[in-house]
Amino acid sequence: MVTEPLLRTVDLLGEQWMLLILQSVFLRVRRYDDIRVRLGISPTALSSRLAEAVRVGVLERVPYQSVNRVRHEYRLTEHGLALWQLLISMWTWERDWAVDRRIMLPDLVHIDCGQSTAAPLGCRDCGQRVWLSAVRAQRREPLLFFPAPAGVFAARTTPGWPPTRCFSSPPPWNCSAIAGPSACWPGLSLARGTFPNSSATSASSRVCFGGRLARLVELGVMRTAAATTRADARAYDLTAKGRAFFPTLAFIADWSRTRYPDTPPALTLTHRGHRFVPALLCHHCHTLLQRSRVHPH
Ligand SMILES: [Zn+2]
Ligand SMILES: [Zn+2]
C-alpha cells in the first residue's frame, strides 16, 4: 500500500483507463453503461476503476431512478473536480507531443474572451506565465530516487527504493507511459544527472532505475550522452518534450498536497520566493482560468 501522497496520485492518474474514465465524467458521461460504451472498456476493468476512484474520493455514487429500479451514476467530488487543471495539462501535453494518441482531445474555450486557448501554466499567486526554469524545487525523502541531484536539489538517494516498482509494459497513452510506470519521474523532471553514480544503491534498484531512464529516453522525454565524470556512466537531461511535462508534474504535486494535507509534501515548489501554486492561463486574455469559465468544444 503506497502511502506517500505524490506516489498515490501518480498511481491513481498514471493509469490510462482511470484518466479516460475521469475525462468521461468531466464530459458528463456519468452512467456505468454510457461510460462503458463510450470507452469500449470491459465491465471488469470499468468496475475496478470506478471502485478505486470512489475509494480515493474523486468520484461518488449517486442514486437515480431508472425505469423500475434505483441505479447509480458517478459524480465528481470536490477532490475530483479539483483535478480539472491537472487533467487539462495532461491533455495539452498529449495534444502537443503524443503523435499516436488514442482519442481526440477537445479544444478548451475560455468563456470570458470566447477564444480557444492552449491553457499554458501560470502562477496563482502572481498571475505570471511560468516555465520550468523559474521554479525551484525541494524534495523530501524517501519519495524521489534520483542518483545525481543537481543545482538547487539537495535530495539524497534512498537505497533500495523503489523495491518493486519496475517498469511494466507501457500503456499506449504517452502521458501515462511517463507518469505511471516511472513513479520517480517527478525527480527527473526537475533535475539532470548521471547514472549510475557513486550512491550506495542496491543492484536491483539500479537495474530498475536504469530501465526507467532507458524508457524515458525511448519516449523522447530525456536524452543521454556519455558522462564526463565516469567511464561507466551516462549523463541524462530533459528534452523539450520532457520539459513540457512540467505543468502536469506541478499540478500532481499541488493536488496531492491538498488531497492529503496531513502528510508533509514530498515536493515543494517555489516561484519568485513564494510557494508555487500552479494555475492555468488563457493565452489570449492572460487571465487565470476558472473551472466554471471554460468548456470543451
Ligand atoms: Zn508567482
Ligand atoms: Zn481568455
Q: What would you note in describing this structure?
A:
There is one protein chain. The protein is of the alpha+beta class and 297 residues long. The chain has one domain. It has eleven helices and 13 strands. Strands 4-3-13 form a three-stranded antiparallel sheet, with no helix packed on it. Strands 6-10-11 form a three-stranded antiparallel sheet, with no helix packed on it. Helix 1 packs across helix 11 and helix 6 packs antiparallel against helix 11. The two termini are 39 Å apart. 38% of the residues are buried. The site of one zinc ion has 8 residues, from strand 4.
Number of strands: 13
Spatial strand order of the main sheet: 4-3-13
Output the helix-strand order.
Answer: HHHHEEHHEEEEHHEHEEHHEEEE
Instruction: Please give the share of residues in helix.
Output: 25-40%
Strand coverage percent = 15-25%
Q: What is the total domain count?
A: 1
**Nearest-integer average pLDDT:** 75
